[in-house]
Amino acid sequence: MKGFLVAIFLFFSIHASAQVFTFECKCEHLAGSDCDICNTNITSRSFHGLLIYRNGTPYKWIDEPYTIRRLSSDAITFQEQIVNPENITIALFQTPFSTMAGYVDSTTCFCNLGGAMDTVVVDTPIIGNGTVGNPITIGQFGADTTMFLHWNGSYWYPSAVKQTWLENDLPYFLNDDDAITGGLPPGKTYLLAQGNTLAMPVGMYKVVIGCGFDCANPIRFFASDASATANGIPVGREYATTNGNIYGILYGFVRAVYAELDNDTLECNTVLPDYIDDPDAIANALVVGDHYTVTSANPYGAPAGVERVVSDATTTEGDAPVCCEENATLPYYNDDTDAIAGGLSAGYYYYLTTANPYGWPRSTKKKIQ
To answer: What is the CA radius of gyration of the chain?
Structure first.
């Protein structure tokens, strides 16, 4: 009976702090508790966008225009398309919705369009009205898999293209990342292979245009900064540790390729769930590749708030990195106290310095508790 009571206590301790997010499209002046900037001088403010509530309390104000990025882990990232944008990632299980389709549809606001997308007028070759059941796309109009779009003087329309056969000895790759791994530097040409990730015909010419890194691509696993850099991860960008990594920590922990960027400007408080360890995360509907932050009760010896990818010793990829920007990285601090003194607050992420008191490797990613 004593063990049973302890189990009940632990269950309610873990789940009592569960966060539920709800959403409301607002196209009006906000006042009172719904207004994020109101004070004794400001009584209301105009707002067009998505108001996100956490446990019934206004939490995030996502202004139009914004994008909704649906992730493979059954989560959505809401990203403002304005200067100094807000962004937040919320999983399906943290909302009242039962399906991703309902989640996406209910968080799409069109204040500036004056109504729903079912009033959109389209012309050849576009079809659809923009609703979930009838999305806007390019119509087939008699095209087959050998045709391309051709401007006929009035519209873009399917057309056959004359083909010329050329002999060459260029290598085949799936994408730029694959080409770089195969030894091609930026600027070199290759041919797209069968199954390429660009959804393009086999044999089309492609030029390597960059380092191969993209914030939207999966996070990859490496044993060290040197290994990550050699495989196209730029300095300041994130990867996860492999089994047998040089830092002596468990596989799956998120870190950045170190750079002298201790005072960089990226700020991020993307919402990730907190769990004790991978089994606890999986028991709460996460799967291999999902991100979360460990609690103080974790068995890995990590400080509370360190970010981790659900994984095993053979995992090579996970969901795309969070808090990722092409031109900025998170700042470096010794610990939570140091980060708060530097201007951050609870829920924001940073990288650990060499002098951190936790005994964990420099550049480990941590959330302020």
So the answer is: 24
